[in-house]
Amino acid sequence: MSWKHVLESFDLLDSPAANGEAVRNLWQNHGADDVFVETVAGHAGATDFVRVLIPGTRGKSAGGAAPTLGIIGRLGGLGARPEKIGFVSDGDGALTVVAAAAKLLEMASRGDRLEGDVIVSTHIDPDAPTQPHDPVPFMGSSIDMSINNKYEVTPDMDAIISVDTTKGNRICNHRGFAITPTIKEGWILRVAEPLLDIAEQTSGMAPVVLPITMQDITPYGNDVYHMNSIVQPCTATTAPVVGLAITTISAVPGSATGATDLGSVESAVRFVIETAKDFGRDKLAFFDDEDYAQLTARYGTMSKLQHLDQTLAAATTPA
Q1: ∠32-24-85 over CA atoms, to 5°?
Q2: How far apart are the C-alpha atoms of 294 and 252, rounded to whole Å?
């Protein structure tokens, strides 16, 4: 169980003083050797990006060949101060991955090291802006989505789980968490069966799948509707991406305080940890290689959907 790590992470992040250095200290207290922290200023303020590597016994960091899992916490902000006091619903993605990293680091320090490397990244902003959105208001962000991708997505990630609060909708009405289909280079692929097994195992319920549309996998800034930013890492990588959504039965605004269900967060933490265990030892695939090869051979690349417009896609896609 990960309750200790969820509670200490929530206590740390539920503060107007929450910042990257505080997260660095938390992770180092659990055994981290090297934590990246950088403050980045944006159009509406600044935020601290944080990233930590949890080395595996056969990971790339040790010269091995085991695959690397990226775990990204997506959010606009942890708080909407001074408009709202306290931790907002939108912060659940960061909370989940900060706690998951703490648990994985502690496991490693006790001798339970995974085979593959795990890279955990997110950003820490206790006073982000809000913005209008249907059906309920969104949290905004101090920085552009392209900056998130620059700091949170790394070339070493062979697959990515992107964790985001996904409560402000009427298409996934479930208390707990849901997963998306796998997205790879503009293709929305079938839901990964092994991830459904892990979702069932860690939640104790039938797995729930969050519907994803073509709009959702295109970059922010193209003036089309996005449910939220849960799968936006897919616009910045060739690695397969799966969204892990913290969900509710009713539509809850991302800027709502008092809305975080720690039970849902804790089960999401266990989901990413169990996924990391199996992925690092090559026991779990996010997609079927042969199926994907068949799709691209018959219908070609869909990578143009990773770019803001067709012109840019043509200029950046190899012939």
Answers
A1: 145
A2: 40
Helix (H/G/I), strand (E/B), else coil: 139: strand
Residues 6+ apart with CB under 8 A from 190: 181, 182, 287, 288, 291
Q: Which residue has the tokens 């797995």?
A: 207
Cα distance between residue 144 and residue 227, in whole Å: 17
The span from the CA of 56 to the CA of 6, in Å, is 23
- Token look-up 């199996």 returns 278
What is the residue type of 300?
Answer: G
Extended strands (E) in the chain: 35-42, 45-54, 69-74, 118-124, 130-131, 138-139, 159-165, 176-179, 183-184, 187-188, 241-247
Peptide bond before residue 233 is cis, with ω within 30 degrees of 0:
no
Peptide bond into 82 cis (omega under 30): yes
Of 238, 220, 237, 221, the C-alpha closest to 229 is: 220
Parallel, antiparallel, or unpaired for β 183-184 and 69-74? unpaired
One-letter amino acid for residue 226 of the chain: H
Helix (H) or strand (E) holding 193: helix 193-203
* DSSP-assigned beta bridge partners for residue 268: none
CA distance 268 to 246: 8
Q: Measured between alpha carbons, how far is 104 from 107 in angstroms, rounded to an integer?
A: 5
The SS3 call for residue 273 is helix
Give the model's pLDDT for residue 43: 82
- Amino acid at position 189, single letter: L
Amino acid at 267: S
State pLDDT tens for residues 24-71.
999 999 999 989 999 999 888 899 999 999 999 999 999 999 999 999
pLDDT in tens, 1-32: 899 999 999 999 999 999 999 999 999 999 99
